[in-house]
Amino acid sequence: MYEHLVTFKFLEGYKGEKDGVLLDKLLSFKESIPGIVEVTAGINVTEEVGNIHGYTLGLRVTFESKEALSEYGPHPVHQEFVSLLDGILDNVIVVDYPIVR
Protein backbone atom coordinates (compact mmCIF):
# COMPACT_ATOMS: atom_id res chain seq x y z
CA MET A 1 0.00 0.00 0.00
CA TYR A 2 1.01 3.62 -0.53
CA GLU A 3 0.28 6.77 1.45
CA HIS A 4 -0.35 10.11 -0.26
CA LEU A 5 -0.11 13.16 2.03
CA VAL A 6 -0.96 16.66 0.84
CA THR A 7 -1.07 20.00 2.61
CA PHE A 8 -2.55 23.07 0.96
CA LYS A 9 -1.65 26.71 1.45
CA PHE A 10 -4.15 29.20 0.12
CA LEU A 11 -3.56 32.69 -1.22
CA GLU A 12 -3.56 35.56 1.23
CA GLY A 13 -7.08 36.89 1.43
CA TYR A 14 -8.75 33.49 1.04
CA LYS A 15 -11.22 33.26 3.92
CA GLY A 16 -12.27 29.63 3.65
CA GLU A 17 -15.32 30.26 1.48
CA LYS A 18 -14.83 27.01 -0.45
CA ASP A 19 -13.65 24.82 2.46
CA GLY A 20 -16.87 22.80 2.62
CA VAL A 21 -16.90 22.15 -1.12
CA LEU A 22 -13.20 21.21 -1.11
CA LEU A 23 -13.61 18.80 1.80
CA ASP A 24 -16.69 17.19 0.28
CA LYS A 25 -14.86 16.62 -3.01
CA LEU A 26 -11.78 15.19 -1.26
CA LEU A 27 -13.87 12.83 0.83
CA SER A 28 -15.74 11.64 -2.29
CA PHE A 29 -12.50 10.27 -3.78
CA LYS A 30 -12.89 6.87 -2.10
CA GLU A 31 -16.20 6.16 -3.82
CA SER A 32 -15.12 7.67 -7.14
CA ILE A 33 -11.49 6.67 -7.75
CA PRO A 34 -10.45 3.00 -8.00
CA GLY A 35 -7.68 1.69 -5.75
CA ILE A 36 -8.31 3.97 -2.76
CA VAL A 37 -8.44 2.17 0.58
CA GLU A 38 -9.02 5.19 2.84
CA VAL A 39 -9.32 8.98 2.65
CA THR A 40 -9.18 11.52 5.45
CA ALA A 41 -9.13 15.29 5.08
CA GLY A 42 -9.61 18.29 7.31
CA ILE A 43 -8.86 21.85 8.27
CA ASN A 44 -5.66 22.34 10.27
CA VAL A 45 -6.44 22.95 13.95
CA THR A 46 -2.95 22.45 15.38
CA GLU A 47 -1.92 24.49 18.39
CA GLU A 48 1.63 24.54 16.98
CA VAL A 49 0.94 27.84 15.22
CA GLY A 50 4.63 28.43 14.59
CA ASN A 51 4.71 25.33 12.41
CA ILE A 52 1.65 25.98 10.23
CA HIS A 53 3.49 28.15 7.67
CA GLY A 54 0.13 29.02 6.11
CA TYR A 55 -0.93 25.41 5.36
CA THR A 56 -4.54 25.07 6.42
CA LEU A 57 -5.99 22.01 4.64
CA GLY A 58 -4.67 18.46 4.89
CA LEU A 59 -5.35 15.30 2.91
CA ARG A 60 -4.32 11.68 3.45
CA VAL A 61 -5.13 9.00 0.89
CA THR A 62 -4.16 5.34 1.26
CA PHE A 63 -3.83 3.46 -2.03
CA GLU A 64 -3.82 -0.30 -2.48
CA SER A 65 -0.84 -0.15 -4.86
CA LYS A 66 1.71 2.05 -6.59
CA GLU A 67 -0.31 1.64 -9.80
CA ALA A 68 -3.45 3.00 -8.10
CA LEU A 69 -1.45 6.00 -6.87
CA SER A 70 -0.11 6.59 -10.38
CA GLU A 71 -3.60 6.48 -11.90
CA TYR A 72 -5.02 8.89 -9.30
CA GLY A 73 -3.37 12.08 -10.58
CA PRO A 74 -4.93 12.13 -14.05
CA HIS A 75 -8.28 10.68 -12.89
CA PRO A 76 -11.15 13.04 -13.89
CA VAL A 77 -12.51 13.26 -10.32
CA HIS A 78 -9.08 14.32 -9.02
CA GLN A 79 -8.71 16.80 -11.87
CA GLU A 80 -12.14 18.24 -11.02
CA PHE A 81 -10.85 18.87 -7.49
CA VAL A 82 -7.69 20.49 -8.87
CA SER A 83 -9.84 22.87 -10.91
CA LEU A 84 -11.59 24.00 -7.70
CA LEU A 85 -8.21 25.32 -6.50
CA ASP A 86 -7.89 27.78 -9.42
CA GLY A 87 -7.41 31.28 -8.09
CA ILE A 88 -7.12 30.30 -4.41
CA LEU A 89 -4.07 28.03 -4.13
CA ASP A 90 -0.69 29.48 -3.17
CA ASN A 91 1.31 26.29 -2.63
CA VAL A 92 1.00 22.58 -2.00
CA ILE A 93 3.28 19.99 -0.40
CA VAL A 94 2.97 16.34 -1.47
CA VAL A 95 4.58 13.30 0.15
CA ASP A 96 4.07 9.79 -1.27
CA TYR A 97 5.60 6.70 0.32
CA PRO A 98 5.13 2.95 0.54
CA ILE A 99 3.65 1.94 3.87
CA VAL A 100 6.14 -0.04 5.96
CA ARG A 101 4.85 -1.91 8.99
UniProtKB/TrEMBL annotation:
Against PROSITE patterns, the record matches this protein to: S_R_A_B_BARREL (PS51502)
All copies of domain Stress-response A/B barrel, residue ranges = 2-97
The cross-references to SUPFAM superfamilies, in alphabetical order and at most eight, read: Dimeric alpha+beta barrel
InterPro entries, per this entry? Dabb, Dimeric_a/b-barrel, HS1/DABB1-like
Complex formation? Homodimer.
PANTHER family, alphabetized: PTHR33178, STRESS-RESPONSE A_B BARREL DOMAIN-CONTAINING PROTEIN (PTHR33178:SF10)
UniProt name for this protein: Dabb family protein
- In which organism is this protein found? Paenibacillus gansuensis
